Q: What sequence folds into this?
């Protein structure tokens, strides 16, 4: 059947093709000392598409990309889409350990990795899929050979990626996102960030997470330049890199910003080029917000909240940052959200309930998991539509601004009351010498569960357990005051910077 080539413009990877034609010499990607223009990255994507097609990859096939941040994973990601297949980026450090379970669930046609991980990946994959080594000279020659990508058949309702997350049982869950989902998310995020072709975005977040992946997609959607880093082990070299490349945008999580604020002599760096900062995960404490404004006076700070299941939900306009420091803002463009109480009614200002999301960014469902899909996606406002029940507890203020309270399964039930860990953490981090804190529930022989706080203090600080208890009691009920307080040098974190609370219990 003849296909109208204009269908390609509805696919998320078409932005790369569009800018390769409009601005072929503009830098699309910086990976260390390696730079790729839009024309070069577009050609590499075609090369990967041809290579995968030669391996038998066709429409709807899954391709796992077990690669660290860099030019190879970006080109292979776009190339997989050009082959009408479904890419999944897996973090080369952490997720390779659970690769076997993902292979069983995803049934990929091909797994792409690098020389360093080749032996471990081959041993894990066995005969279940072909393994391609991205940095092998033969592969590089094929990709750079100017091959023509196969003819497209995909439309926007086809899957564009499966993002593998860890469910409550520890088993990987595959979040299915279509081209339509991802295109709408990229468009909405670009709109509220006012993203443009002159933006230079530095990404330290792993592309295996949607927060990192959309640094790539939003930047290329608008024709900007993405600077990819392997991670955020040491903050000072990252800041120097920002100065060197005149970076205009940076995405981080609270633990990263805490590391930046702990540095000395940051003021000596010329970071005046920074146009915006984004934060996701949870709200930054007010003292951290004030300090960031001092360090980056020209940068607009966007607090945000999102889930893999819909990429992004809301953002706080920068002019509201100091007025509502603990808010995560308003619904992003082309989306509707509300808070629903246990009886199904809408929550009023100040009332806590589950956040529900309606929009074209909501996932298709969980890969081959109809039970989990049915729990998350339920009938919506109008006949035939499904909306996302996030499982997260929120409230609004009188003006309708959203406030994250807790994960529904993260709430600590102690002494007959419910305690939201995030509220306790915010109260603790309000102390000037506290860098970061994590609050969990631990077994208690009398109360069943008690509140425990794990706290990182600034070097040389004299903040005590009593100081922390007083700070919490000044803002919250007595039941929220931690019974156990532990001081540590650092909190255990995932590769995306998320605190691993399971290790603190």
A:
């Amino acid at each position: 059947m003849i296909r109208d080539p204009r269908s390609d413009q509805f696919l998320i990877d078409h932005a790369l093709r569009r800018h390769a034609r409009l601005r072929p010499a503009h830098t699309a990607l910086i990976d260390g000392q390696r730079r790729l223009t839009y024309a070069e990255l577009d050609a590499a994507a075609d090369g990967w598409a041809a290579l995968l097609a030669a391996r038998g990859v066709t429409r709807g096939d899954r391709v796992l990309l077990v690669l660290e941040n860099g030019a190879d994973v970006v080109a292979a990601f776009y190339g997989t889409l050009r082959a009408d297949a479904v890419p999944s980026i897996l973090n080369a450090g952490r997720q390779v350990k659970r690769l076997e379970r993902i292979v069983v669930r995803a049934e990929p046609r091909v797994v792409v990795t690098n020389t360093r991980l080749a032996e471990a990946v081959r041993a894990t994959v066995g005969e279940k899929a072909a393994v391609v080594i991205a940095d092998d000279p033969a592969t590089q020659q094929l990709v750079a050979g100017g091959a023509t990508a196969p003819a497209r058949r995909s439309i926007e309702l086809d899957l564009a990626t499966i993002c593998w997350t860890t469910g409550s049982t520890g088993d990987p869950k595959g979040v299915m996102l279509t081209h339509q989902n991802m295109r709408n998310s990229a468009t909405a995020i670009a709109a509220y960030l006012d993203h443009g072709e002159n933006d230079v975005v530095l990404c330290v977040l792993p592309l295996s997470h949607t927060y990192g992946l959309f640094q790539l997609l939003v930047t290329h959607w608008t024709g900007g330049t993405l600077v990819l880093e392997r991670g955020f082990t040491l903050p000072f070299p990252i800041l120097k890199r920002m100065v060197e490349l005149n970076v205009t945008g940076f995405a981080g999580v609270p633990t990263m910003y805490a590391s930046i604020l702990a540095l000395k002599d940051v003021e000596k760096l010329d970071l005046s080029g920074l146009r915006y900062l984004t934060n996701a995960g949870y709200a930054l404490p007010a003292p951290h917000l004030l300090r960031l404004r001092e360090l980056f006076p020209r940068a607009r700070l966007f607090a945000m909240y999102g889930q893999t299941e819909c990429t992004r939900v809301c953002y706080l306009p920068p002019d509201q940052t100091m007025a509502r420091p603990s808010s995560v803002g308003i619904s992003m463009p082309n989306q509707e959200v509300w808070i629903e109480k246990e009886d199904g009614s809408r929550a009023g200002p100040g009332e806590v309930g589950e956040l529900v999301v309606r929009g074209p960014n909501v996932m298709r469902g969980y890969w081959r998991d109809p039970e989990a899909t049915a729990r998350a996606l339920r009938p919506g406002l109008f006949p035939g539509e499904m909306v996302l029940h996030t499982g997260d507890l929120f409230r609004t203020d009188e003006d309708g601004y959203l406030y994250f309270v807790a994960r529904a399964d993260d709430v600590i039930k102690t002494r007959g009351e419910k305690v939201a860990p995030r509220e306790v953490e915010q109260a603790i981090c309000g102390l000037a010498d506290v860098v970061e804190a994590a609050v969990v529930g631990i077994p208690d022989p009398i109360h069943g569960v008690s509140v425990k706080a794990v706290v990182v203090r600034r070097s040389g600080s004299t903040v005590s357990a009593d100081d922390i208890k007083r700070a919490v009691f000044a803002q919250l009920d007595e039941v929220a005051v931690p019974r156990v307080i532990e001081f540590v040098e650092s909190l255990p974190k995932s590769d995306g910077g998320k605190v691993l609370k399971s290790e603190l219990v």
About this structure: The two ends are 58 Å apart (CA to CA). The longest strand covers residues 386-396.
